[in-house]
């Protein structure tokens, strides 16, 4: 079935937000990050890496792989807690996996209150409502099969950039963090807190979520005001947890919601349908390519996570992904099994749906003018005939194809040559 393409409006200029910050003093130009970037957003020029941010999906692969720690994720600082009088912390399921010997997630929630927040919201609980809506959508069959989860913003960006024909398969629900933010804001207003005093803070495991929440993807305006890193929050919350003298019952999340923090958690929550789940950006790319080629058979639902093991594998976490995954499995045994539903909070299905629908992004086009783009495509093909096609990266581009595109696109001078071929020619002489 042909995929229907829809449109999104972003609330900020994408060029104003960088998900990855580069430290040129630490960068050694080793090309490791360049070779592994799934969208070929990185180039190495003058011995230093640079990022074409319009192509960056925030997956964090470059941060994860850089042995020189030249790349860091972009996020708000802990000092921004002073920006609002009434501060709400949104806690992702993966956050609980950072703590050793944790017997109750209520300890973490109380620790956040002790660390300076006035209220807490559980993203895992919000994920249960998204699960409820997903089941309704699956039952009515309003989207082409298989439906692709949009919970991972890095994968959503990847599809919008590189897999345009799959855009009609995207699940059109709000991300759980946006649902949690809306609910937390409503709760604060109901308590009589003035709108201007409310600040919603998400503790993020990855830079992709920072980008999505700052941009307000899928919503008319961002519901989250600040995005903190898990590593920063961990360092503040752990001492506060150790000083607790009383632990109030705050969590209303079920085991279903907590499972969303690890790969296959969302897929398993759909129940009774044929699902597939992949984690790690390379494996996700394989699934998307297989779907484009019609090779997934009767699969009805696809869950994709750019980070290995799911959100517990985010680069802004402090704990090993597999250790955190094990801890979440342990904690699920202590939670209720009965899942939260949208009926229990009196919300309609529409309340959980995208407010602004996404459109594809033509970041790989050679020219805005179609005739000029065709001419450059033909020129690129001619250039490729002269290249060795070994994708060595010596030229500062991740592949021979990327080098040819940089040439015809004017990114590098027209007289640029293949370094490998030039070196081999010198040796022959």
Question: Which architecture of the largest domain would the CATH scheme give at its second level?
Answer: 3-Layer(aba) Sandwich
Count of separate structural domains:
3
**Lateral arrangement of strands in the main beta sheet:** 6-5-8-9
Number of helices: 16
Q: Rough shape?
A: globular
What class would the helix/strand composition place it in?
alpha/beta
Class of the largest domain, according to the CATH hierarchy? Alpha Beta
Number of strands: 11
Distance between the termini: 57 Å
Please compute the radius of gyration using only Cα atoms.
Answer: 23 Å
Strand content range: 5-15%
Mean pLDDT: 92
Structure described in brief:
The chain has helices at about 30-35, 60-65, 95, 105-115, 125-140, 155-160, 175-190, 205-215, 230-240, 255-260, 265-270, 280-290, 320-330, 370-385, 400-410, 420-429; strands at about 20, 40-45, 50, 70-75, 85-90, 120, 145-150, 200-205, 225-230, 275-280, 300-305.
Report on the architecture of this protein:
By secondary structure, the protein is α/β, with parallel strands linked by helices. It has helices at residues 32-36, 61-65, 93-96, 105-114, 123-140, 153-162, 176-190, 207-215, 230-242, 255-259, 265-270, 281-292, 321-332, 370-384, 400-408, 419-428, and strands at residues 20-22, 42-45, 48-51, 71-73, 86-91, 119-122, 147-148, 198-204, 226-229, 275-279, 301-305. The chain has three domains: 19-73, Alpha-Beta Plaits, CATH 3.30.70; 78-141 and 173-262 and 311-352, Rossmann fold (3-Layer(aba) Sandwich), CATH 3.40.50; 370-428, 3-methyladenine DNA Glycosylase II, Chain A, domain 3.
């Amino acid at each position: 079935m042909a995929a229907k393409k829809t449109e999104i409006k972003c609330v900020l200029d994408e060029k104003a937000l960088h998900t990855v910050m580069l430290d040129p003093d630490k960068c050694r130009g080793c090309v490791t990050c360049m070779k592994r970037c799934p969208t070929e957003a990185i180039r190495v020029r003058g011995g230093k890496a640079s990022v074409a941010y319009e192509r960056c999906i925030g997956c964090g692969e470059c941060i994860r792989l850089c042995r020189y720690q030249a790349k860091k994720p972009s996020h708000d600082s802990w000092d921004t807690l002073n920006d609002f009088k009434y501060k709400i912390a949104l806690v992702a399921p993966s956050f609980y996996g950072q703590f050793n010997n944790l017997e109750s997630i209520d300890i973490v929630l109380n620790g956040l209150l002790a660390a300076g927040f006035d209220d807490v919201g559980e993203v895992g609980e919000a994920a249960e409502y998204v699960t409820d809506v997903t089941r309704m959508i699956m039952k009515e069959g309003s989207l082409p099969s298989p439906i692709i989860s949009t919970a991972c913003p890095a994968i959503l960006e990847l599809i919008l950039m590189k897999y345009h024909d799959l855009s009609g398969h995207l699940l059109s629900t709000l991300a759980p963090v946006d649902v949690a933010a809306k609910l937390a804001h409503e709760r604060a207003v109901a308590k009589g807190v003035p709108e201007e005093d409310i600040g919603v803070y998400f503790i993020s495991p990855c830079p992709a979520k920072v980008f999505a929440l700052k941009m307000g993807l899928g919503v008319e305006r961002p519901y989250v005001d600040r995005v903190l890193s898990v590593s920063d929050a961990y360092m503040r919350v752990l001492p506060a947890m150790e000083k607790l003298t009383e632990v109030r019952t705050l969590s209303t999340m079920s085991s279903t919601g907590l499972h969303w923090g690890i790969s296959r958690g969302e897929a398993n929550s759909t129940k009774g349908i044929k699902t597939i789940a992949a984690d790690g950006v390379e494996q996700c790319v394989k699934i998307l390519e297989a779907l484009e080629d019609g090779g997934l058979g009767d699969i009805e639902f696809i869950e994709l996570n750019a980070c290995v093991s799911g959100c517990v594998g985010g680069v802004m976490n402090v704990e090993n992904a597999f250790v955190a995954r094990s801890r979440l499995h342990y904690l699920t045994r202590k939670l209720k099994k009965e899942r939260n539903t949208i009926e229990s909070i009196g919300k309609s299905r529409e309340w959980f749906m995208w407010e602004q629908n996404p459109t594809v992004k033509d970041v790989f086009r050679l020219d805005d003018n179609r005739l000029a783009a065709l001419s450059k495509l033909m020129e690129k093909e001619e250039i490729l005939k002269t290249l060795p096609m070994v994708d060595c990266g010596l030229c500062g581009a991740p592949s021979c194809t990327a080098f040819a595109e940089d040439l015809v696109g004017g990114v590098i001078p027209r007289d640029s040559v293949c370094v490998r071929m030039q070196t081999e020619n010198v040796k022959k002489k």
